[in-house]
Amino acid sequence: MTATADLAIRLRRASFNRALADADLAAIGPILAQNVVMVTGTDSGVIAGRKAQLMAWKREFAAPDRSIYTRTPDTILVSPIEPIAFEHGHWQGVAASSGILIASGAYTAKWRQRGDEWLIEAELYLTLA
Question: Do 65 and 95 contact (CB within 8 A), yes or no?
């Protein structure tokens, strides 16, 4: 299960990154658990719930100077006793208009398998640059 889960989570992360780049809210929603929590990197703002996160992304996508964020997993640690996993990696945000790096750092995400799908339950970001 570990290799299969690792690949499934990496594929879901790639889909999430693609949805962010394409400003595709409809593709983001199914990747998030209903009670997902995000703690942002710079101000430690808490965005609780799928609806709240989708609203935050909607605002970001509408901004004239919007950023495109990419998360790149370094490791996926899958629990051997529960259908959960931790993803650790690095992230970056670039200006959509110029591709210039705006910020970057590290992150951790907790995933839970529901049926055949892996869903993000929590993400915690650290801004390093």
Answer: yes
Best CATH choice for the domain 1-127 from the list 3.10.129.10, 2.130.10.10, 3.30.70.360, 3.10.450.50: 3.10.450.50
Q: Enter the pTM of the model.
A: 0.94
Question: Does an H or E element contain 6, and which?
Answer: helix 2-22
pLDDT digits (tens, 9 = 90+) for 63-121: 999 999 999 999 999 999 999 999 999 999 999 999 999 999 999 999 999 999 999 99
Can you tell me the distance from the alpha carbon of 86 to that of 76, in angstroms, rounded to the nearest whole number? 6
Closest CA to 125 of 2, 1, 38: 38
- Which residue's entry shows tokens 């808490």? 46
At 94, give phi and psi (nearest 5°): -120, 150
Q: Which helix (H) or strand (E) holds 102?
A: strand 101-114
Token match 């990696």: residue? 89
- As a whole number of angstroms, the distance between CA 79 and CA 92 comes to 27
Tokens, residue 5: 């889960």
